[in-house]
Structure formats: C-alpha cells, structure tokens
C-alpha cells in the first residue's frame, strides 16, 4: 500500500527512527537531569560514551536550543549577557571541531550555561512577580 506507512513485509506500521537532532536533544536533557539529581559521575559517563564528533555536536545543539529558548525569557540586559555567552560557546565549539575531548569540554560548559540561564530566568520571574505584587 503506497503512502500508508504500512510495511509490505511486516504487515504493521513502522515507527520512524529517532533523528540525530532528536537523539541529541534527548541526550542533552538526560545529561541535565543527571546533573540536577547530583549524579555527576553518570553525567560524565554519558558524555564519555559519545565518541563521534557528530554525536557530540547534536547534543550541543540540544543545549543551545534550550539555552536560547530560556534566554529569550530573560530581561533585556540578562538576555544580552546570555547571548554573548552563546557566542563564546560557539567559538569554543569551533576551536574543538575535530577533537572529541574538546567537544566534551564545550558540552560541559554548554550544559552549565543552560543551568545558569534557567536559574536566572527563575530569579527574574520571582523578582518580577514580587514587584507586581507590591505595585
């Protein structure tokens, strides 16, 4: 059957495989969850298991998407600072392009940036909420 998504041989529906971008985003989220849970050894093991530069870059893209999405919620000055840090992280990535150990360093720093931006966003929400309550 053409165009139905039903395999001829199996007679069933086949699920699409996870794209490299989706897998990278999932690994980035898993890494952050491990760090947040205080399981740094497991987070490091996750990074150590990534040996291909392409895998590492897709995880970094996941971190970048999270940091930029959260950064857009920051007040203007904080958003500008976060944007500058993203540029610096991009330079670190570019300098490590073919070096898996360097790319892992970039991932660690990118993961910390996501955590920092998330903390800043939460602090800004609390502060703005407090100001709104006083007004």
Structure description:
With 135 residues, the chain is an all-alpha fold. It has one domain (20-134). It is 74% helix and 0% strand. Helix 3 runs parallel beside helix 5 (100-134). Residues 1-10 have low confidence and may be disordered.
Largest sheet: none
Number of domains: 1
Q: What is the H/E order?
A: HHHHH
Which range best describes the helical content: under 10%, 10-25%, 25-40%, 40-55%, 55-70% or over 70%? Answer: over 70%
Taken as a percent bin, the fraction of beta residues is under 5%
Radius of gyration: 19 Å
| Shape annotation | globular
Unreliable runs, pLDDT <50, ≥5 residues? 1-10
Keywords for this structure?
135 residues; mainly alpha
List the helices and strands and how they pair.
Elements: H1 20-36, H2 40-48, H3 53-71, H4 76-95, H5 100-134
Structure described in brief:
With 135 residues, this protein is mainly α. Helix content is 74%, strand content 0%.
